[in-house]
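Person: I have long wanted to understand how a fold can be written as tokens. Underneath my words sits a plain record pairing an amino acid chain with its backbone structure tokens. Those tokens are not coordinates but codes from a learned vocabulary of shapes. I should like you to check that the lines agree and flag anything odd. The protein I mean follows directly.
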Amino acid sequence: QVQLAESGGGLVQPGGSLRLSCVASGSIFGIDFMGWYRQAPGKQRELVARISSGGSSDYGDSVKGRFAISRASGSSTVNLRMNSLKPEDTAVYYCNIMVRGTNYWGQGTQVTVSD
């Protein structure tokens, strides 16, 4: 079993910043990817950013240049720094980990960008 503990969501004004963190525990030997997805009301879940065990990262088009994902080598923690936040970034953000080809999801943390 794999458990994911997310933290860092909240309310922020447009143009502001937030940092999300996710700590994985349990049977996490053999991590393929760690990352974040988000789902806004009425929309499909989409990739925000993910980082491979080798350190390469992928970003959703809408967040490129504004968000940065990081994970120390061998660490079970993945962080997402979100800058220049926009109202359209409002969503529930889910931590995701792929371990030996199997996906696991966190419960989600709400990010709201509003005046």
